[in-house]
Amino acid sequence: MDVSNMTVAYQHKKAIEEVTVSIEPGKITGIIGPNGAGKSTLLKAVIGLIKTESGEVTVSGKSLDVIRKKIAYVEQRSAIDLTFPIKVDEVVLLGTFPNLGLFRRPKKAQKEKVMECLKQVKMEDFSKRQIGNLSGGQLQRVFIARALAQEADIIFLDEPFVGIDMVSEKVIVDLLKELRNQGKTIVIVHHDLHKTREYFDNLIILNKKLVASGSVDTTFVTKNIQAAYGDSMGEIVIKGVND
Ligand code: ADP
Ligand code: MG
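Above: the input record for the complex with magnesium ion. Below: its predicted structure, written as tokens.
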């Protein structure tokens, strides 16, 4: 996936500026940067959820519209209305809709697909729960199941580890790595630097403009972290920084 010259402004104030970056297929890419750096904005602009001033996204040279069905998006948890009365299996069923066709009702095949996807994230026992009654980690797994039901090749997740316990975080990371190993492309917005080396193959380091992108080995270096996070980082030593 190639993003070129992407600029987004809210009320004439630029949130991201002229970002040109490639997302390598079959890898886990982290988008990191401080609060307000434009990480969520970049994600939403790339998948066409918000209007851009400029910018183009292509996948193997094709326009995104051609493969839109193959892209899944798991938004920030804070953006989800958890009081909305919907059950776990219904959320996952939504994932099958892009492949259903207009006016077709879900049939047995879709219902089986839902259970198969819930099994993959080890949530099959929760299929009839209201989503408002799940832990943060369980909720993330349900949304990943929805992406699987959609048969998405590219999965975008915005801050999936915020507000969840370490055990759930580990379960989700392992699951995402497993999906990567099956050939899926995973893109994760993340603001905490400590697990960078453990979680990601590649990085996009953002602070309104692109600071660096490429393999963790080449990008996760003090110079880039300081360029993105500024001197607020002070003398804090970040585990795994490559120099
Ligand atoms: P991040 O996800 O890196 O924390 P965001 O992409 O959410 O950053 O925000 C980037 C900048 O754009 C911030 O200054 C934020 O306040 C601003 N912003 C984000 N969404 C909106 C919006 N809907 N309207 C106005 N400004 C916004
Ligand atoms: Mg954000």
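Notes for the reader.
The chain has a mean pLDDT of 88.
The first strand starts at residue 2 and ends at 10.
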